[in-house]
Specification:
This protein is an alpha+beta fold. 55% of the residues lie in helices and 13% in strands. It has a seven-stranded antiparallel β-sheet. Helix 12 packs antiparallel against helix 13 and helix 19 (477-490) crosses helix 20. The longest helix is centred in the C-terminal third of the chain and has 31 residues, at 572-602. It is globular, with a radius of gyration of 33 Å. Mean pLDDT is 81; it is low at 253-276 and 294-316. Residues 669-704 form the EF-hand domain. Pfam families: GRAM (PF02893), RabGAP-TBC (PF00566).
């Protein structure tokens, strides 16, 4: 085809001239159409450089010029010969009449561009820009190399080397929504690697003599090293974000969908490749938004005037004012929608209402209790993936002391969804992640104390109660609200630096403690006696307080001041990076626990050995993850169900597994049997089956004895597996199915 003339400096590098005249060259790519070392060498170079140009081209050059111009390329020799003949018949005589060679070149360029313009006008197809064409080409190569389905979307791709053994293999890393892929072609040998983001347990940038400027990707099976990136920082950030999405998907599909700063599943499904992947733009924007959010959180807080000395001024804090202004009437609408509705969340809220600051007069009357009920219920209605979690009542109670109901509601939104993400859910994942962060910080800042605390197993015990309630449950609330104020003022870093200061202030006592009970008592005494001399309300100790002395252990202002002096250099950006590392570890640990629980509950009912059942679980999990991400009708799992019942796939995914694994997945009627088996298992008619049901049917077909298999076959030919449409089939399929299945019962 004719192409827009582009300058070529080295015309003979890797090309062979087959025809020539004073103004044009017809060339063939070396190695094309043949074999041997040359073909392997050229193929390797094209793969590494991601070029692979068409094997034929025509160049324009004037006799006294050293610059060549590409005017035509082709995949087929017949087409390139046709263009060559046209040039000789229609252009050569005209070029000979030019006295100035520059004029001759300008004529050729204008002529070719005119041909291209006329061709585009005839087809009426808009010409894509170069970046779009390149990205589409990369997407096609990625799909071809890895056989990715159309619904899977490529986000971006990068040139790099993959260390396989002791030798690096230069190639391309492809980052898609669900997979990390690597492809290399060297000296006739292809190398492919596919890692699902949900299988990654650790992601780290490193810079060593052996692996300079490299990225380490760890799974349960092995470590993978990638190096020689052109844009290492951009690549790693993109990998971090995609791995984060995968961890959210593993935790809860509903929570994954509710992250409104991310592209939704429906958006991702329908997007075609753009100039730069629209998914990459979304992820880049999300990263910038998070950075700006943290900066704005701190700066906007610092701009305000502090009007109260013993509590937070809530709405001029983390976006509360903006949310209230942009969502007028939203809180009242939630109250109206949830009025009279009962759920697990409302039952739990009612149970905890009278345990929320019972020592405070505001919550010793129905007025305060009713306000607390409305705020908690409204939030549970807004975010059913969280609903209600213990500790939310304590935090909300304190917010209501210093803010209106609507203001308290928006502050609760900020805490649950932005400042302390994933804290308040059934698995308190965010708190577990921050436990790991706190352990790492203690090891860095207080190494001697860390060893002692680690031996006592104390860090996990204290950090969970401290962080979940932002110290409100372990410290007099008139003192804890000052810490809460700093928390809104400077972000999540505050809870870590306060916790480090508490440990440092009690370092000598803790080092002398004989056991964890003694250490907990020492910390409890210290925290319950943190005083606030500026408080306007009298001191009210917690009903669960172990002791309260007349002499305060420390003034809260002094505690805060010392934490900033010693640990104030700790930034929110550092916390976010540490949270990411811990998130991979915590989520994969939860996933391992879930796997063990599921296998333990299913194993007694099937005849598969441990390895076979694990393989079956992994295949089912793979289909479930795909189903949860791409399915239009996927429903979030109910956390109250057993773990095996939370693992579900739809009919399409079940059919895929049935045809691939079942000995009955053969012949022209295998698809009908798969559909009937699904209907048999789908007793609640929710269009999904769980892992235990899947294991049962596979066990009957693969491991069952003859009576079990006959019974299963019989059930597949009776309602509910058999439906009226099956009986109206134009061909007598039933005898044929029995005939096909008969060989499995011999």
């Amino acid at each position: 085809m004719w192409v827009k003339p582009e300058e070529v400096l080295l015309a003979n590098a890797l090309w062979v001239t087959e025809r020539a005249n004073p103004f044009f060259l017809l060339q063939r790519r070396k190695g094309h159409g043949g074999g041997g070392l040359t073909s392997l060498l050229v193929g390797t170079i094209d793969t590494v450089l991601d070029t692979k140009p068409p094997p034929y081209r025509i160049l324009h050059q004037t006799p006294n010029s050293e610059v060549f111009w590409t005017v035509s390329t082709s995949l087929h020799k017949r087409e390139i010969l046709h263009h060559w003949e046209w040039l000789e018949q229609n252009v050569m005589q005209i070029l000979g009449a030019f006295e100035d060679e520059d004029d001759a070149t300008e004529f050729v360029k204008c002529k070719i561009e005119s041909i291209i313009a006329n061709s585009v006008a005839k087809t009426e197809e808009p010409k894509e820009d170069e970046d779009t064409r390149i990205f589409k080409s990369a997407t096609q190569k990625w799909r071809r190399h890895f056989r990715m389905p159309e619904e899977e979307k490529l986000v971006n791709y990068y040139s790099c080397s993959y260390w396989k053994g002791k030798m690096p293999r230069q190639g391309w890393m492809y980052l898609s929504v669900n997979h990390l892929c690597f492809y290399s072609f060297l000296m006739g040998t292809e190398a492919r690697l596919v890692i699902r983001w949900t299988d990654i347990t650790h992601l780290e940038r490193s810079n060593s003599m052996i692996f300079p400027e490299s990225i380490k990707v760890s799974t349960r099976e092995k470590d993978h090293y990638f190096a020689m990136f052109i844009h290492p920082y951009e690549t790693f950030n993109m990998m971090e974000q995609l791995a984060n999405l995968a961890m959210k998907q593993l935790l809860s599909e509903e929570g994954f969908e509710e992250d409104r700063s991310l592209p939704s599943r429906s958006d991702i499904r329908t997007r075609a490749p753009k100039k730069i992947s629209s998914l990459k733009r979304d992820l880049d924007a999300r990263a910038r938004s998070e950075t700006y959010r943290i900066a704005d959180l701190c700066q906007s807080s610092r701009r305000r005037e502090r009007n109260q000395s013993d509590g937070p001024l809530p709405v001029a804090l983390p976006g509360g004012l903006n949310h209230m202004a942009t969502h007028p009437g939203y809180y009242l609408s939630l109250i109206e929608q949830s009025l009279g509705k009962e759920s697990i969340a409302t039952d739990e809220i009612e149970r905890d209402l009278h345990r929320s600051l019972p020592e405070h007069p505001a919550f010793q009357s129905e007025l305060g209790i009713a306000a607390l009920r409305r705020v908690l219920t409204a939030y549970a209605w807004r975010n059913p993936s969280i609903g209600y979690c213990q500790a939310m009542n304590i935090v909300t109670s304190v917010l209501l002391l210093y803010a209106s109901e609507e203001e308290a509601f928006w502050l609760l939104v900020a805490i649950c969804e932005r400042l302390l993400p994933d804290y308040y859910n059934t698995r308190v994942v965010g708190a577990l992640i921050d436990q790991g962060v706190f352990e790492a910080l203690t090891k860095t800042y207080l190494p001697d104390l860390f060893d002692r605390m680690d031996n006592l197993g104390l860090l996990n015990m204290v950090s969970l109660s401290w962080f979940l309630t932002i110290f409100l449950s372990v410290m007099p609330f008139e003192s804890a609200v000052n810490i809460m104020d700093c928390f809104f003022y400077d972000g999540a870093k505050v809870i870590f630096q306060i916790a480090l200061e508490i440990l440092d202030a009690n370092k000598d006592k803790l080092l002398e403690c004989a056991d964890d009970g003694e250490a907990m008592t020492a910390l409890g005494d210290y925290l319950e006696n943190v005083a606030n001399k500026d408080a306007t309300l009298p001191h009210m100790p917690h009903t669960s307080a172990m002791s309260y002395g007349e002499v305060p252990s420390v003034e809260v202002s002094q505690l805060i001041r010392e934490s900033y002096i010693k640990f104030g250099n700790l930034g929110n950006e550092t916390i976010d990076k540490m949270r990411f590392k811990q998130r991979l570890k915590v989520v994969q640990g939860l996933e391992d626990t879930a796997r063990r629980n599921v296998l333990r509950s299913v194993a007694p009912d099937v005849n598969f050995n441990q390895k076979e059942l694990e393989d079956l679980y992994n295949l089912f999990k793979e289909e479930q993850l795909t189903n949860s991400f791409w399915s239009q009708n996927f429903q979030p799992m109910d956390p109250s169900l057993p773990m095996y019942a939370q693992m579900r796939i739809d009919q399409e995914k079940f059919k895929t597994l049935f045809l691939a694994l079942s000995p009955w997945g053969l012949g022209v009627y295998a698809g009908q049997l798969a559909n009937r088996a699904f209907r048999l298992l789908d007793e609640d008619h929710d269009s999904n089956i769980n892992f235990k049901e899947f294991a049962f049917v596979m066990n009957s077909m693969c491991k069952g004895d003859l009576p079990d298999r006959l019974r299963m076959l019989y059930l597949l030919h009776m309602p509910p597996a058999l439906i009226p449409e099956d009986l109206e089939s134009p061909s007598p399929i039933e005898p044929k199915i029995f005939e096909q299945m008969g060989k499995f019962f011999i």
